[in-house]
Write a structure and sequence with these properties.
2 copies of one chain form a homodimer. By secondary structure, chain A is mostly helical. Chain A folds into 2 domains: 86 residues, no CATH class; 359 residues, Na+/H+ antiporter like fold. Helix content of chain A is 75%, strand content 0%. The first copy, chain A, is built from 20 helices and no strands. The first copy, chain A, is globular, with a radius of gyration of 24 Å. At the A-B interface, helix 1, helix 2, helix 5, helix 10 and helix 11 of A face helix 1, helix 2, helix 5, helix 10 and helix 11 of B.
């Protein structure tokens, strides 16, 4: 993988052109970022090309940060950390990265990235294998939601004294739902997306998302109306169950028919690609429509799709050529090669998504890192509060891992459930908007969420190493 | 490729689920588009997921429209036409596609799509082969810029009487620059990206872009100051030449060093992908910085990159496995297979960009179609004016093709130069903003540009067929 000598040699030969290139690119970028309108004479406005530059920079930063792999860490940790570093440069007066952080286009591509990731992981798995881990996933999810909610509700008054009981409820709720993006990526980096622990974690994270929806409805009903309407909660549960159950049933029925229909129009790779990707994107949209996270929809779509559905499409030219070559060579010796072709031919739809992933994924993780507000760590009160909540957040999910049952590493499952994300931030924002949480508590929550994100990659890598 | 019976059979089996799916998706989409805030309880806002749905719809529309290939037309024509159809649905009260047309995220992805296309075409060619067509390209470009400018300047008073001479100058200028996106895509659809005619067209289009810049500066100087400043024009020319010449020299020197440097950090596919794509994106940005079209930069970057530069990276797993299989099989018979591997191994970076292209390209062409304002054709005066300008626009470029010299199909080159695009629209917008052009003339120009775009694919396909 790595070659220290070549790196050193290459570094020397590279520095002069690198500096030269930077002399051109950086002032240009700064000029453009300042919007001096220097390009009046030119016909290409710079806002879109500037985003091209940002993407190039993010991709390269992400890849350079893969140096953390030499320390035995998953690549995603590097992406997050380099994001944190770049996102904090404004503290020393470099504001080049500020517009990136707030660009809706970059945000969109980041979201698309994580949707593609979960879709990809779904494709690598199947409905059947997920069903097998249904019970442990459900148990891990339930324990992992109830424990942090209760622990923070009851211990909250010791950590942050003087809030209303509603505030503690909110605080507890922020720590319930696992954000599966980070864990999924770590599992991929470690080549473990398909082990039983990974399936339990991802299954539990999907169920978490449904539970999170229910808690959100319950908690906000308690705060706004003082009571919980069973009807509202039932509607949410029904919508989610109909989406997941109905989606899988309808999708399983529909996918081969869609494939047959569209392959009758065109059997090319482009069509196959469009059908596969559109299927994932439509499911992501439908999930959002019923109030679930788009990644849950994309994952479900991935579970449904299997390569067999796409037999009608023509094969990629590579495989085609190989088959011809094999035929020309005399018979028996080439069985081995035919086997290789067979295997890879089936991986063709995974290849599509993986190429898209190469493009969009680093954007998600670097951007996630960029959004970490280092400044929030300067406040001692926030820091102490965060660390205490963090400890509860970690312990409760690790304990939830115990519900994973026999035959799997319970610790791995527990650690995999640690990262919190968007759902927690949404709770925190609601609590702040409703006035039950002040800025200090809000900042503390943001810090906890970011820390759970940063500590999971190394912890999960360590746990997997121990298990080997 | 196609199978009429299977399509019919599949259509019957498909309609019920399709209608069922539409029953879920369409009301949802409409609901979401209306922003009824139905998702208050859910944690995923619908703006980003809705764009996922749009992309899915665009991808599928684009692919369904590939049915035009059965009529011997290039697929891009189908994409444009389905775009026109969807973009005109508002005329019958269906406004689902309106937000797509104005979404900055969709626009960005469309731009990225055409940048990737030209990058891809650049990769398939090389600096050396482009140099070979340097002289004919330059001649075709110059004739193709001067002819329409003069023709419209002098014939303009007959077509649109009563405008100022500046207005005729502007009108002429709108018809000078070829928009290479459409032609490049048609050539790709017809598998002709690498024939000498294609290289001359693309070379001429790049030079066109530089000439367009110069004309833009000259014309706007005449309008605003009444005189042309030689200094300003020289600066533009120098910037463009430095970018193209210097870019190629510096890039050719830099690319293998960049590759060596980054392969020393990591030799994985992800790194290779990031280096290749970033190289293209940075060039697109730099082109915009000197006032050229980003696609010119991306094309230049593609010319510079050759697979040889990426020898240090590890091979894709497919090829790796095959090599192993070949080694295990006994020696000599497998020479053929090794050859196939060798060929495809080199195509690996083209594969990256082609997968990204599958994703982004249809967005560009469908969106281009959507922006056609059918309503503008209702006005008889506009229509007649457009058709007259269109005839001049076509004839002048076809005549310019004569400058392509011996050994190539001059008609093909001329037809390939017909499409006009962004540069023309920028001129038209400037003319309108400066008050030298009224709404009628502006609409006529927009119609001409869109018609050149729509007629080129079938014309080019016909010309190629004749040449066979």
């Amino acid at each position: 993988m790595f070659n220290r000598d070549r790196l050193r040699k290459s570094l020397y030969s590279f520095m002069p052109p690198f500096l030269l290139a930077m002399l051109v690119i950086v002032p240009g970028a700064l000029l453009a970022a300042e919007g001096t309108g220097a390009e009046e004479a030119g016909h290409a406005a710079l806002d879109i090309p500037l985003i091209f530059l940002w993407i190039a920079i993010i991709l390269m930063l992400a890849k350079v940060s893969s140096l953390v792999e030499r320390l035995g860490q998953p690549a995603v940790l590097g992406e997050l950390l380099i994001g944190v570093a770049c996102g904090s440069l404004y503290l020393v007066g470099i504001d080049f990265f500020d517009p990136i952080k707030s660009s809706p286009i970059i945000h969109f591509m980041a979201e698309l990235g994580v949707v593609i990731l979960l879709f990809q992981i779904g494709i690598e798995s199947s409905v059947k294998t997920m069903m097998k881990v249904g019970v442990p996933s459900f148990l891990v999810a339930c324990v992992g939601v109830i424990l942090p909610l209760c622990a923070i509700y009851f211990l909250g008054p010791l950590i942050v004294p003087g809030l209303s009981s509603t505030a503690y409820l909110f605080l507890g709720a922020t720590m319930t739902a696992t954000s599966v993006g980070i864990t999924a990526r770590v599992l991929q980096d470690l080549n473990q997306s398909n082990c039983p622990e990974a399936r339990i974690i991802i299954g539990a994270a999907v169920i978490d998302d449904v539970l999170g929806l229910i808690i959100l409805a319950v908690v906000s009903a308690i705060v706004t109306r003082g009571t919980v309407d069973v009807g509202t909660v039932s509607v949410i549960v029904i919508k989610a169950v109909v989406f997941l159950g109905g989606g899988v049933l309808l999708g399983t029925w529909l996918a081969p028919r869609l494939s047959r229909f569209f392959s009758a129009i065109h059997t090319g790779i482009g069509m196959k690609f469009a059908v596969v990707i559109s299927f994932g994107l439509v499911f992501a949209y439908l999930a959002a429509l019923v109030g679930l996270a788009p990644i849950v929809g994309a994952f479900t779509a991935g579970l449904i799709l299997t390569p067999v559905y796409f037999n009608q499409f023509s094969e990629p030219p590579f495989i085609d050529d190989l088959r011809k070559a094999v035929k020309e060579v005399n018979g028996s010796v080439v069985g081995k090669i035919e086997q290789v072709i067979e295997t890879h031919s089936h991986k063709h739809i995974e290849e599509f998504t993986s190429h898209l992933g190469h493009f969009f994924l680093p954007i998600f993780f670097v951007l996630t890192g960029m959004q970490v507000k280092i400044a929030a760590l300067y406040d001692m009160k926030v820091l102490v509060m965060s660390l205490l909540i963090l400890v509860i957040a970690i312990i409760t999910k690790v304990v939830a891992g115990l519900a994973a049952g026999r035959g799997v590493s319970k610790l791995t499952v527990g650690v995999g459930m640690i990262p919190r994300g968007e759902v927690g931030l949404i709770f925190a924002n609601m609590g702040k908007a409703m006035g039950v949480m002040d800025d200090t508590v809000f900042s503390a929550i943001v810090v906890v969420i970011m820390l759970t994100t940063l500590i999971t990659p190394p912890m999960l890598a360590a746990v997997f190493k121990r298990a080997d």
